[in-house]
Hints:
The protein has two domains: 2-251, TIM Barrel; 300-372, Arc Repressor Mutant, subunit A, CATH 1.10.10. It is 42% helix and 21% strand. It is built from 15 helices and 15 strands. The protein has helices at 29-42, 67-80, 100-109, 123-129, 135-147, 166-179, 196-203, 211-227, 246-252, 279-287, 300-312, 320-326, 329-342, 359-362, 365-372, and strands at residues 2-8, 52-59, 83-93, 113-119, 153-159, 183-188, 231-234, 237-239, 256-260, 265-267, 271-275, 293-297, 318-319, 348-351, 354-357. It has a nine-stranded mixed beta sheet with strand order 7-8-6-5-4-3-2-1-9, with helices on both faces. The protein has a three-stranded antiparallel beta sheet with strand order 10-11-12, with no helix packed on it. Helix 1 (29-42) packs parallel to helix 2 (67-80), helix 1 (29-42) crosses helix 10 (279-287) and helix 2 (67-80) packs parallel to helix 3 (100-109). The longest helix is centred in the middle third of the chain and has 17 residues, at 211-227.
Amino acid sequence: MAGIYIHIPFCRKKCFYCDFYKSTDLRLKLRLLAGLQKEIANRKDELQSDLVTTIYLGGGTPSVLVIDELRALLAVIFDNYSVSKQAEITLEANPDDLSQAYLSALRETGFNRLSMGVQSFTESDLKLMNRRHGVLSAIQSVKWAKSAGFSNISIDLIYGLPNQSLADWEHNIQVALELGVQHISAYHLTYHEGTVFYDRLKKGTLKEAPDELSLQQFQLLIDKLTEAGFEQYEISNFARPGYYSGHNSSYWKNKKYLGFGPSAHSYDLKTRRWNVVSIGNYLDQIESGQVYWENEILSEQDHYNDYIITSLRTIWGISENTVKDEFSAEYLRHFQEVKAKLLPTGWLVVKNDQVTLSREGLFVSDQIMADFMLVDQS
């Protein structure tokens, strides 16, 4: 099984917190789409006989594409790869791009999952983040999506925003629940270097939320969504039973995936590969038949650390038998020593050979992952 990711690096407006590679200049859109189709077709042998079970269009803002453009991208995938009839096919979308007609056409084209960048149901938050949609637009878009036949809808929310009170955050959660979505991804605001928010933080015109408030917001998130029947299957991801993101789960479960487009990453279980982070360079090089990517062969230590980072974030956790079977004895010894050290803290839950984070462990997950990782001392 394998996944396919397509990066659409265009946005109509740049959000002040976002550090993903994107451009608000859409003049290269048609040329990029041609380049994407060429890359998709050229790399068909990389998956060999692997069945594609997830297709994910992310960005950027893939919903800036019109239906015919999206249909053409899916067509080249289906023409060149073995795609499961039950494949999860997701489109990331901004509420302002969505209409009843567009959403109905998406379903007819083959998309069966929608991931909407809502971020907040508070107007002041949206304005602060430089989002281009409003609260009513977000709510209406979810309702239209349901009417169009989407029964697998995810929304993104951000907490830890400047001036966001605990009551504000509870309001966001409550609106999301009232809309009846199947999946919620909730992330704490991160100040990435190179973003407007980062610059404002350094200048002192923006203040980070207090750690205690961020912790309270995370605790409230877990309590409210668990009470509503959601399962926290990854630190930042909550879903109703049966609605885990198949695509993201494949990342966390160490499955193969191909990434197409500028800045997109690929992984074949042995090698990581990433495309050039430039629309112009990507197009120039792919059109002229030149190399437009870099790659690295992963060491055993890389594999182990990747396994720790991705697995410990999830409901499935780390399998001690996997560490024993797939890595050298030193890795098992290190893992067992760290586990023994951390067990008295109450941060871990051990059941059979599975090691997962307890609720208390969720709040110090970065520290726990760092302890389990193996780092060269040389």
